Amino acid sequence: MIIVKRKIFGILVFPLSFIYWLVMPRRLRGTVMEDLRQWSRWKHLPCNLWGFSYFMGSMPEFRSVFYKRARLLGILSRWWLPGKTNLEISTNDIGGGLIIQHGFSTVISAEKIGRNCKVYQQVTIGFNHDLRAPVIGDNVEICCGAKVIGGITVGDNVLIGANAVVVKDMPSNSVVAGVPARVIKHLDHVRDLTE
Q: Is the pLDDT of residue 126 over 90?
């Protein structure tokens, strides 16, 4: 029943999505296409205008990311097609392909987030007492309830486990967990975050 409702809402939002697609600046379109490609692979939907319309109509987390990227378009449509409540994104330098799954009670205030990252619910990425924010690499997955705090660097291809508290630099190609977080496994291959 939920999927039917989402498809109907996607159809109703199609004209607006088409207008967004037409007026979207070229530099923004490339980044939104990276987002759309990752979301489409994750949800097994087509990566085209219909997929864009479906996500705009049925996924408030997708809308929140889109509005952050599309600033003016977001301001114009946020009042009648809102993004996810309790999802705060204040990072301006976000690579394409960002997926936010169940963005409830999530704060994203990094200095920079790389490409193809995935963030789950109740995650905090933010400042420490020195007002320094973390730098998140490419292909990083931050699981439920994790905290990434301070002027640290999280390398590429890192999986941060649920409820981990990351307060120091983490190397690329690793799995980290615990309080405080530490490397529990080194990865020898790049994982596909959409699976």
A: yes
Cα four-point dihedral sign 132, 28, 85, 137: negative
In angstroms, the CA 66 to CA 51 distance is: 14
Structural domain boundaries in the chain: 2-77, 87-186
Work out the pLDDT band at 27, boundaries 50, 70, 90. confident
H helices present in the chain, as ranges: 2-23, 26-43, 49-58, 60-69, 71-77
Q: What angle do CA 97, 101, 103 make, to 5 degrees?
A: 110
Q: Kindly state the tokens that stand for 154.
A: 């999280």
- Distance of CA 10 to CAs 15, 19, 64, Å? 10, 14, 16
Q: Tell me the residue type at 156.
A: D
Residue spans of alpha helices (H) in 46-177? 49-58, 60-69, 71-77
Contact between 59 and 81 (Cβ < 8 Å): no
Summary mean pLDDT of the chain: 88
The CATH superfamily of 87-186 is Hexapeptide repeat proteins (2.160.10.10)
Q: Which residues of 38-48 are buried (b: 16+ CB within 10 A; e: fewer)?
A: bbbbeeebeee
Whole-prediction pTM: 0.87
